[in-house]
Amino acid sequence: MYFGRVVGRVWSTAKDPRLDGQRLLVIQPLSPELESRGKQIICTDCVGAGTGELIYWVRGKEASFPFLPTEVPVDTTVVGIVDEVHLGIKNQEPKARNQKSGARSQKRC
Asked: Which of 6, 10, 59, 92 has the lowest CB atom count within 10 Å?
C-alpha cells in the first residue's frame, strides 16, 4: 500500500464498458513523511475519497479485488482514507490530519 493525496478527478465518456460507474481519481503519490513523490497517477476509487484527502492505494492485480466479482481492468485503486499518521519521530509536529472534517460513513466497495 502507498500514501497519496487526491488532487482531482477524471471524467471520461469513451472507456472500456467494465469501467462504467467507476470513479477515477488523480492521485499525487506521497512518501511516508507525506512529501510528494513521483508523477501523478489515475486510480479507481472504492471508498468515496474526495479532493484534498489523504488516502492509501494499491497497485497490481490486487487493485481489482475490491470490485469482485466484476472484473474491472485496473492496476491502481484507492482502498482507504487516512485519518492520522504517526511516524514516531521525536520533535516533530503531527503532520497529517485529513483536511476534510466530520465523520465519514463507511461505504462498501
From this structure: 92
User: Is the Cα dihedral 80, 30, 51, 9 positive or negative?
Assistant: negative
List, for residues 10-35, the tens digit of each pLDDT value: 999 899 999 999 999 999 999 989 99
Alpha-helical (H) ranges within the chain are none
What residue ranges define each of the domains in the chain, with the CATH number in brackets? 2-81 (2.40.50.220)
Please count the other Cβ atoms lying within 10 Å of the Cβ belonging to residue 27: 22
- Could you tell me the sign of the dihedral formed by the alpha carbons of 93, 98, 100, 103, in that order? negative
* 100-107 contact pairs (CB < 8 A, 24+): 100/50, 100/52, 100/53, 104/48, 107/46, 107/47, 107/48
pLDDT of residue 103: 47
